[in-house]
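Possible regression after last week's pipeline update?

I re-ran a chain I had predicted before the update to compare outputs. Posting the input and the new output here so someone can diff against the archived version. Not blocking, just want to make sure nothing changed silently.
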Amino acid sequence: MLVLAFDTATDVATSALVLDGHVLGERAGTARALVGDVDDLLASAGSTPADLDALVVGTGPGSFTSTRIGLAFARGLGLALEIPGAGVSTLDALAAAQPGAYPVVDARRQEVFVEGPRVLSPDDLELAEGVLCIGGGAVRYRAVFERLGAVVPPDDDERHLPHARLHAGLARDFADVDRLEPIYVRAPDAERSGT
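New output (post-update):
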């Protein structure tokens, strides 16, 4: 089965083309570059969109707008190609990078998204001594997490990215792409301000 997987919920969007569990190619960029990255992945594999059997998309939590970009792309592509899709939490994909790792996504406004999923200030987390924190939130609030006794890999460590290949490996329930739903955890800024 040829699967296209991608996640746009964080500052770095990732995409991967996976054939029967074997990664044919991966890209890391921005949500705005997703279409170009997918075209490159397919071309490099000698494939076309018509060859795809399924999609896997990161459902967040993360940036409201970026998460919506990924879901809209998945729905449009899935409907056009008449193929199923599956959603995978960005936090779950991050955690899959290393067993025992604690995923942390930057939620802006001096907050982070963590397992639960929930959103809170990094200072309010209760972490076990020596726990490995990975993700953009761990990088941004490194000083806080290290003060709390956590270990944060160097900023350029690959484990900080929600690799789309990990999403593909975690996907289980493929269904109509219209059923894919985002994980927001909190209301979007426009809704909070009453606009």
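Follow-up from reviewer: compared with the archived run. The radius of gyration is 17 Å. Marking as no regression found.
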